[in-house]
């Protein structure tokens, strides 16, 4: 199942003995395009604190209650290392958080996974929303939101709003089709032509995304299926 990021932002985080806040943002690794942290907005409970929780700590989202359960107490979260609000998340900060909670870091998971070093390359989905998307022969629109896979927390698609080019049409672009990102210029360069994008299957955000649509999309671009 794929979740739209606006549907996840705002979900409550329910500890074992009460609420600790709600999801305010998602931080993803800009090399693997996988969500690494949920940024929790604690409201008036912990004013001035930025609380980070890895997706592995979140239980299955409850769309009825619009919340994630976590197997933590409010006190445990309150005593966690302060992630700060005015500095980027460093590898040391990540290691401190994983060590405090006693969880295995994401960079040690899986056979053959090489531990990354230095900058964890984390980006905010809130910040990247609005980036211009440029094809090989011109602009095609801007990033409107993202589709995140349940379980793996991989960002499978950017939803691109093309209203300035084709009124009313939205299209999907997979991170694997990105050639380069200029973070300073807020631009994403994709290895596709404008005509290819224009002829791609239209995405309707009001209809749940199914595998048949994804197959059609990947065949249109002649790209391999990510699901093997």
Supply the key terms.
globular; Photosynthetic Reaction Center, Chain H, domain 2; alpha+beta; 228 residues; 2 domains
What report would you give on this structure?
The protein is of the alpha+beta class and 228 residues long. The protein has two domains: 7-123, Photosynthetic Reaction Center, subunit H, domain 2 (Photosynthetic Reaction Center, Chain H, domain 2, Alpha-Beta Complex); 129-221, Photosynthetic Reaction Center, Chain H, domain 2. The protein has helices spanning 5-8, 74-78, 91-101, 125-128, 194-198, 211-221, and strands at 2-4, 12-15, 18-29, 34-41, 51-53, 67-69, 122-124, 132-135, 138-149, 155-161, 170-173, 178-182, 187-190. The strands form two sheets. Strands 1, 8, 9, 10, 11, 12 and 13 form a seven-stranded mixed β-sheet that branches. Strands 2, 3, 4, 5, 6 and 7 form a six-stranded mixed β-sheet that branches. Strand 10 (155-161) and strand 11 form a beta hairpin. The radius of gyration is 18 Å and the shape is globular. The mean pLDDT is 90.
């Amino acid at each position: 199942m794929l979740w739209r990021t606006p549907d996840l932002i705002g979900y409550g985080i329910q500890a074992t003995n009460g609420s600790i806040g709600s999801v305010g943002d998602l931080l993803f690794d800009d090399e693997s395009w996988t969500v690494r942290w949920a940024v929790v907005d604690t409201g008036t409970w912990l004013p001035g604190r930025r609380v980070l929780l890895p997706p592995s700590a979140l239980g299955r989202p409850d769309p009825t209650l619009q919340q994630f359960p976590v197997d933590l107490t409010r006190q445990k979260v309150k005593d966690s290392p302060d992630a700060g609000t005015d500095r980027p998340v460093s590898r040391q900060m990540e290691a401190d958080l994983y060590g405090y909670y006693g969880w295995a870091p994401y960079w040690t998971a899986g056979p053959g996974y090489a531990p990354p070093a230095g900058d964890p390359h984390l980006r905010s989905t809130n910040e990247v929303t609005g980036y211009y998307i440029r094809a090989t022969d011109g602009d095609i629109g801007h990033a409107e939101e993202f589709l995140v896979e349940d379980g793996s927390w991989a960002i499978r698609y950017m939803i691109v709003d093309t209203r300035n080019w084709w009124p009313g049409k939205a299209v999907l672009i997979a991170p694997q089709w990105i050639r380069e990102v200029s973070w300073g210029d807020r631009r994403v360069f994709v290895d596709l032509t404008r005509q290819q994008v224009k002829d791609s299957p239209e995405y309707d955000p009001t209809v749940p995304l199914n595998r048949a649509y994804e197959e059609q999309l990947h065949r249109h671009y002649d790209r391999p299926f990510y699901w093997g």
